[in-house]
TrEMBL record:
This is Guanylate-binding protein N-terminal domain-containing protein. GO terms for molecular function: GTP binding; GTPase activity. The chain crosses the membrane at residues 574-594, 627-649, 682-702. It comes from Spizellomyces punctatus (strain DAOM BR117). Residues 65-189 form the Guanylate-binding protein N-terminal domain.
Length: 713
């Protein structure tokens, strides 16, 4: 290591290691490629994109706040690089003796008609403008002749130069005509589309960007709109000021005429609003031709001195430099100075969220339609993502869920309406709004169906538990006949069984009603509960089978009336026996004691009975006629009452009634049998009751008869 050769090798190794670890350290006199052309997989002109380079990212990331950037954009071969070089010359204090060679200028200037610059280049050596370290960005010329540029690529050039810059030099060549104004307005309009789409995508993706502030840290969803807009300085080179003075206009008045009269969009107010949104201040800076020597201006001379330019040109460039320096401000986000690292994060995020490419040869109307359609699809995805996060729980309800869905839909609709409004109420926006409104209504309905499906699944799960509980109760009742026989009538037992089944199902349905729309059919809900996770037919068959088995068991239970009759029958028989025996003995004693009187009474009674029978026969004939008039309706009523009693009391099936002639005769016979049974019972009751009453009043009757006979004697 002590030999000079070893020391030399060591120093070379250290230098190589340092350079390997710091590959992006710039050489101050060499511009750095900030954004380069790239192609996607299609490898077509339409696939050309603008991408931040690693060396550009490293350089921007090394900048500390505050700093400012001046970008130069405009058509190709209009002197953008040349103009930036003159600003550097002025900033460095150029005088008449100062001469800048090609090797010392910031940006190379090429001769001929081909563009020298591709992509975006930044000069790494700052100049001081307005007391702020300021870096210069030169951009690829628009409408280049050596390559076909798409609208999307030119918009990316313009929008990136604008987003990075605190001041934009829009450089064109005189004379300024309507085409130049429309080109600028087209770039601004397409840039607004780009930035609005990026903003919407960034907000929807909810990408937060940590931005460091001294003493605190903020998580911010930053969008291009949050950047302080740059100032626009429209430099028109080779300008004929004599014509402007002859018209009696100032540069500001001329600019106002250009902006208001020559429109790119159908609505001139939208044109102006886009310009005001894109830039903070807008000024027109006329610059005369720098020299009449075409050879020098084409770059053929070895050197170009400051004194080689016209005095008026030097004044115009100095005036432009003064205007930029006066109005320039550090790059800010929401009024806060940005560091280079933060700006890199923002640009990287926005490029990641960039919208689809605008196809080649796309006009404004088609671009708006693509933008709105793209945003509509993104809003639908955002709605679905937000709807998927809505909780579906037993604590909620269908009405609240629907309100939340509608609120989400209203938010997305508001975003779309705001975009359409920003585009100047474009007619295509009305159609997209109608499309989005319809699609959101469909999505709301789809998510409502998701909620209903969840509720039906919950009911099915609860229905399984309820079915098991009902079956356990029915089978337990079936296996305990004593409990079944507590019901006297089959009808009441049926009612009790069906009431219990309905109660178990209602116990599930009642708390679940709030999870269904009011239009939901309750019969369907009962069907779902009955089916559970299985088949409704099979579940109902299981229940019907158990109920049928219980009813069959109930049919074997003793009749309560029969039990009561069996208890009363012995007492009744004993009563009849005792009554008949006592009555017989009493009658024998009376007959012996009062035989003469009884004979006399018998004769009288016989005579009286004959008389009574004669009169009764006559009256019975008359009464029979009247009875016949009433008997037919009465028998019909009795028959109907009989049928009613069969159905209501005995639970007889009406479909089993015999409606034909023979069947009616059988029914009538059954009814008459029942009537005769009732009559026998009634007559027996009257005889027994009358006998008892006669036995009690007989002494009083005989006493009256005895007194009557004694009186006659």
């Amino acid at each position: 290591m002590r030999s000079p050769y070893c020391r030399l090798l060591f120093l070379l190794y250290v230098a190589f290691a340092v350079s390997a670890q710091s590959p992006h350290l710039p050489v101050e006199n060499t511009p750095i490629l900030l954004f380069s052309r790239t192609k996607d997989d299609s490898d077509t002109v339409a696939g050309t994109r603008l991408r931040l380079t690693p060396e550009g990212s490293a350089f921007l990331g090394s900048l500390y706040a505050p700093f400012a950037i001046v970008s130069a954009v405009g058509p190709t071969r209009t002197g953008k690089s040349f103009l930036l070089n003159q600003i550097v010359r002025i900033e460095n204090g150029s005088d008449a003796s100062t001469r800048v060679t090609k090797s010392a200028i910031p940006f190379p200037v090429g001769g001929g008609v081909a563009s020298k610059t591709h992509g975006l280049w930044i000069w790494p050596k700052p100049i001081t403008m307005g007391g702020v370290p300021t870096y210069l960005i030169d951009s690829e010329g628009l409408h280049g002749v050596e390559s076909v540029q798409t609208i999307a690529y030119e918009v990316e050039l313009f929008v990136h130069a604008s987003m990075l810059a605190s001041a934009v030099l829009y450089n064109t060549w005189a004379p300024v005509d309507a085409a130049d104004v429309r080109n600028l307005k087209a770039l601004v309009a397409f840039s607004r589309l780009f930035m609005m789409d990026v903003a919407a995508a960034t907000v929807d993706s909810n990408n937060t960007l940590p931005l460091t502030v001294p003493g605190e840290e903020h998580d911010l969803i930053a969008i291009p709109e949050h950047l302080d807009p740059p100032n626009l300085h429209w430099a028109v080179q080779n300008f004929n000021k004599y014509a402007l003075r002859k018209a009696g206009w100032t540069a500001k008045e001329f600019l106002d005429q250009l902006i208001t009269k020559d429109t790119f969009l159908e609505d001139a107010n939208v044109d102006v609003r886009f310009l005001q949104q894109q830039f903070g201040t807008i000024e027109l800076v006329p610059i005369v031709r720098p020299s009449d020597d075409d050879a020098k201006m084409a770059g053929d001379g070895d050197e170009i001195g400051w004194a080689d330019f016209k005095e008026e040109y030097r004044k115009d460039v100095t005036s432009l430099h003064h205007s930029v320096s006066t109005h320039i401000a550090p790059k800010r986000l929401n009024g806060r100075n940005l560091s280079g690292a933060e700006l890199v994060k923002l640009i990287t995020l926005w490029d990641k969220e960039a919208p689809i490419q605008i196809p080649e040869h796309t006009n404004w109307a088609r671009a708006v339609q693509l933008k709105l359609e793209h945003e509509a699809k993104r809003l639908l995805r955002a709605f679905d993502a937000a709807a998927a996060k809505l909780p579906i729980t037993m604590q909620g309800d269908f009405a609240t869920f629907t309100k939340k869905l509608q609120a989400l839909a209203d938010v997305e609709m508001a975003k779309m309406k705001a975009s359409v409004k920003n585009l100047g109420e474009d007619p295509r926006g009305v159609m997209v709004i109608a499309f989005l409104e319809k699609e959101l209504a469909n999505r709301v309905e789809q998510w409502e169906n998701v909620y209903i499906t969840w509720a039906e699944t919950e009911i099915k799960a609860k229905g399984d538990a309820a079915h098991d509980e009902v079956m356990d109760w029915l089978l337990g009742l079936r296996d305990t006949p004593d409990r079944i026989c507590k019901w006297w009538f089959t009808t009441s037992l049926k009612e009790a069984l069906h009431k219990r089944i309905k109660m178990e199902r209602d116990k599930i349905i009642k708390p679940m009603i709030k999870h269904f729309p009011s239009s939901y059919d309750h019969d369907i809900m009962h069907h779902i509960v009955g089916a559970g996770s299985g088949s409704a037919h099979e579940r109902n068959m299981e229940i019907d089978t158990a109920v049928h088995q219980i009813l069959l068991t109930h049919a074997t239970c003793p009749n309560p009336f029969q039990i009561a009759l069996e208890v009363i029958q012995p007492l009744w028989n004993a009563y009849k026996t005792a009554f008949l025996a006592g009555g017989g003995l009493l009658s024998l004693g009376v007959a012996i004691q009062w035989r003469h009187t009884l004979w006399t009474m018998g004769v009288r009674l016989t005579h009286l009975t004959g008389t009574l029978l004669t009169h009764a026969y006559r009256h019975l004939i008359t009464l029979g006629k009247e009875v016949l008039k009433i008997s037919v309706p009465l028998l019909g009523i009795i028959y109907l009452l009989w049928i009613g009693s069969q159905v209501t009391i005995l639970g007889r099936d009406v479909s089993n009634l015999r409606w034909n002639v023979r069947g009616l005769s059988d029914e009538m016979e059954d009814a008459m049998k029942a009537l005769r049974g009732f009559a026998r019972g009634f007559v027996t009751f009257v005889l027994v009751f009358g006998s008892g009453v006669g036995f009690l009043v007989m002494p009083w009757v005989w006493k009256r008869i005895w007194r009557s006979d004694t009186g006659r004697k």
